[in-house]
Amino acid sequence: MGLGLLSSRTLLRSGKLRPGIFTPLLRRSIVSTSELQNAEAAQAQPDSPPPDLPKRTPVGGARVHFPNPEDAIEVFVDGYPVKIPKGMTVLQACEIAGVDIPRFCYHSRLSIAGNCRMCLVEVEKSPKPVASCAMPALPGMKIKTDTPLAKKAREGVMEFLLMNHPLDCPICDQGGECDLQDQSMAFGSDRGRFTETKRSVVDKNLGPLVKTVMTRCIQCTRCVRFATEIAGVQDLGMLGRGSGEEIGTYVERLMTSELSGNVIDICPVGALTSKPFAFKARNWELKGTESIDVTDAVGSNIRIDSRGPEVMRILPRLNEDINEEWISDKTRFFYDGLKRQRLNDPMIRGPDGRFKAVSWRDALAVVAEVIHQVKPSEIVGVAGKLSDAESMMALKDFLNKMGSNNVWCEGNGPSPNADIRSGYIMNTSISGLEKADVFLLVGTQPRVEAAMVNARIRKTVRAAQAKVGYVGPATDLNYDHEHLGTGPQTLKEIADGRHPFSSTLINAKNPCIIVGAGVFERNDKDAIFSVVETIAESAKAVRPDWNGLNVLLLNAAQAAALDLGLVPESGNSIESSKFIYLMGADDVNLEKIPEDAFVVYQGHHGDRGVYRANIILPSSAFSEKEGTYVNTEGCAQTTVPAVPTVGDARDDWKIIRALSEVAGACLPYDSLTAIRSRMRTVAPNLLNTDERQPAIFSYSLKPESRQEMSTVPFGTAVENFYMTDSITRASKVMAQCSASLLKK
Amino acid sequence: MLGRLAAQRFREIRQVFRQIPQAPRLFSTALNYHLDTTDNNPDLPWEFKEANKAKVKEILSHYPSNYKQSAVIPLLDLAQQQHGGWLTVSAMNEVARIIEVAPIRVYEVATFYSMFNRTKVGKYHLLVCGTTPCMLRGSRDIEDALLKHLGVKRNEVTKDGLFSVGEMECMGCCVNAPMITVADYSNGSEGYAYNYYEDVTPKRVVEIVEALRRGEKPPRGTQNPKRINSGPEGGNITLLGKPKAPPCRDLDAC
């Protein structure tokens, strides 16, 4: 993604602009430090750099973490002394000193290869320039990055790299964001001496997502290391030797990993690029908007690049706590579904069964009329997977005002328990998973349900040799795991201590139990949770310093729904309803809806719900509205509108507010801040974006369940990773992926 | 005047490009990516013969049990010998299964080394050394003689499947240059032989080929009857006597 990738925590995100608090951001306050007032004391400090050198801060605003403060060593970068933790490489020391060293093959999250040689710097007393990415920094080393030797080394390496590189810049998608372009302008010389014939390489077919032009490859092996280490699929390798080296899969294999799109970011040149985005736009034409992904419950931070009204591509944003620098393929490529099957006008189904476009006034009037003709107990509202917290708040308020309490969110099951937050949240937090040493996965396949959580588990398994036990149907996880069983009986055995895995759990320092949200749909959900609770108790998974009992949610809307209290009075209310308000809900079992029920579908895609709807109210998708989404760890994040809404669509909560006024039960909020203040009265954590509240009440507060555990084995909650919600089902790229990339 | 200089330089550059490029001297017999054929595709089953399975175990015992992947090169060599001189994709997959690594890691090793043939070779794979000392002594003529006699191009197998010609790096017989090697894959891994035929002439090399075709085993080593191994023609003319013994065998006594 280029040098200097800044962690993007904007002011909006950091919560400084909370409604109601005026911060004088535009006024610079004059600060006096103790050093300024105490001049002699400052000069007496021996460690401070000579006063004529400017103060240096680490590259990209990074903070340095000293795992062992006594072990800090001092090195000199261009004459500037800097303290670094022991074990850091010369390149990392230079980064702390604020010097960005050019590199192609080094990546902070991958193993060190040292084969591009672009990071060569001069080190005193060393006969040759040193590959800074691989050389550990020794105490007292004097590193020089701007001497003629280092500059000549960079020019030479760049000349070599450009020797066999084709002159593809005009037709290469990476132009404008290409590391090779940037570094040759900054560090290369202006001419080369190569007059022979360049070599060319056959392109490989890696699937419908990654476009390969292997002639452009500079053999940095970042993609090979990514695939081996982070994605866990050993598909790519470096074949041949010398200038005829090729990156490929040798036999024709498609990259089926769910993280395969990340090699597009990682490749420093245009060898691996995005196939759906090929030849569509240049990166300088695009406006980047920082937003949140809603295809799963992880809430990966993304940047939506748009040109005008069209979303051109989606790139990851750095968030160390949730998704690091990666996003799953679904998140990256589903955006073309935003252009298809969009609802743009309110429509009413006429007596002949066909839809007719009407004005908002008429549509809302009809809905208001019908809603007054039914009894309150026959009104049902279902919030969809992609609903934001504001719209769910509005829906619940409106239906409550109409007298009904049958509002729920898809995926939470027939009788969700929203009382105790720790019962539906990933209490360990995604970054906390790295501290676990034993995992027990119950009825969840993290690889398809939450690919970034799976990547984190894999990271822990690799780094700390964590053990993973899995209970559920046989599945393909990209790390070593023990398949303990398929159904709840295995859980009972583990709880009773009869299973060999129980001893592993009990002896673990930080056991982590992850229950999938697919369990919510089961009738014996309470029994299963109480058994899991017993296991957690015996393994001491819930302690003041470590909470290892987690639930992995499936949808972006589930956590916020439970925080806001979208719990229905009765789970079978649909069968006896006469007025159903589907707010983006496409996974409702349409057969359960009675023939004479009046269905209002408010959503952005003409997916499954519209086939039964009587009225369609078009609303905006996540890329077009500012909404609050809570991820599976309970961290609230907001999306930012990147593109304008389509046609006559409006924001979800605004439609409901308008409807409430027409229906005579006006909701008391008119603006975003007003509805957020209303949210604050119900669930104040929704307004504290980017913060996670640790669970105060332990799960054991729940009364003992007297349910019987059934013997039905756990099922898979996500059948097709690529098609899980209305936007992905409308996407052509996702259709190609599910046709060619799903593991049969 | 500048125009003339520019035109001259332009002509020079054009000449460089117009030079008929020599036929690319391929070392490895195959491409760096695999194309399925009827006798080389991942669906064909392949496993080591019973006799070779014992050899596999013996090879694996040379390496620590948690670093089985160190055995990749000897196992690939054994697989190549068993399969008649070349490695199929299924053979490489089987080796990957034995040493418990992903197949791509084995593919990487097999494509790196040019002595691992990934396309078919003849029962007798003739390798001509082309490095400087042999070249100076006429290895190009040897190679041309072989190719003309067999009627094939480099790395191509003759129609009867008996011979193929390839180029090899220096095999250390510079004193007996030029030389060829015959890798004998006609009897599987038990009868595998890798013999040097040194001091060859274009005529002699054709005789060797015909002898092999008849099933004979020509004597290996120098083909010059007047030489003994690397000694000169007509016998040594220096170092004729016994080496001088040290003044005193018992160093402590002196």
UniProtKB/TrEMBL annotation, chain A:
Segments forming domain 4Fe-4S Mo/W bis-MGD-type: 286-342
UniProt keyword annotation of NAD present: yes
Alphabetized Gene3D superfamilies for the sequence: 3.10.20.740, 3.30.70.20, 3.40.50.740, Dimethylsulfoxide Reductase, domain 2
Cofactor(s) it depends on: [2Fe-2S] cluster; [4Fe-4S] cluster
Keyword flag Metal-binding: yes
Coiled-coil spans in chain: none
Keywords assigned: 4Fe-4S, Iron, Iron-sulfur, Metal-binding, NAD, Translocase
InterPro entries (alphabetical): 2Fe-2S_ferredoxin-like_sf, 2Fe-2S_ferredoxin-type, Mopterin_OxRdtase, Mopterin_OxRdtase_4Fe-4S_dom, NADH_UbQ_OxRdtase_75kDa_su_CS, NADH_UbQ_OxRdtase_ferredoxin, NADH_UbQ_OxRdtase_Gsu, NADH_UbQ_OxRdtase_Gsu_4Fe4S-bd
Domain 4Fe-4S His(Cys)3-ligated-type stretches: 149-188
Region span, Disordered: 36-64
Ranges of residues in domain 2Fe-2S ferredoxin-type: 71-149
Listed SMART domains: NADH-G_4Fe-4S_3
Superkingdom as given in the UniProt entry: Eukaryota
Family, as annotated: Belongs to the complex I 75 kDa subunit family.
Name the UniProt record assigns to this protein: NADH dehydrogenase [ubiquinone] iron-sulfur protein 1, mitochondrial
UniProt source species: Coffea arabica (Arabian coffee)
Organism lineage string: Eukaryota, Viridiplantae, Streptophyta, Embryophyta, Tracheophyta
Record gene name: LOC113701752
TrEMBL record, chain B:
Region: Disordered, residue numbers: 215-247
InterPro entries attached to this UniProt entry: NuoE-like (IPR002023), NuoE_dom (IPR042128), NuoE_N (IPR041921), Thioredoxin-like_sf (IPR036249)
Pfam families with a match to the protein in the record: 2Fe-2S_thioredx
Keyword Cell wall biogenesis/degradation among record annotations: no
Keyword Transport: no
Keywords: 2Fe-2S, Iron, Iron-sulfur, Metal-binding
Required co-factors: [2Fe-2S] cluster
Family: Belongs to the complex I 24 kDa subunit family.
The name this protein goes by in its record: NADH dehydrogenase [ubiquinone] flavoprotein 2, mitochondrial-like
Source organism of this protein record: Coffea arabica (Arabian coffee)
Lineage: Eukaryota, Viridiplantae, Streptophyta, Embryophyta, Tracheophyta
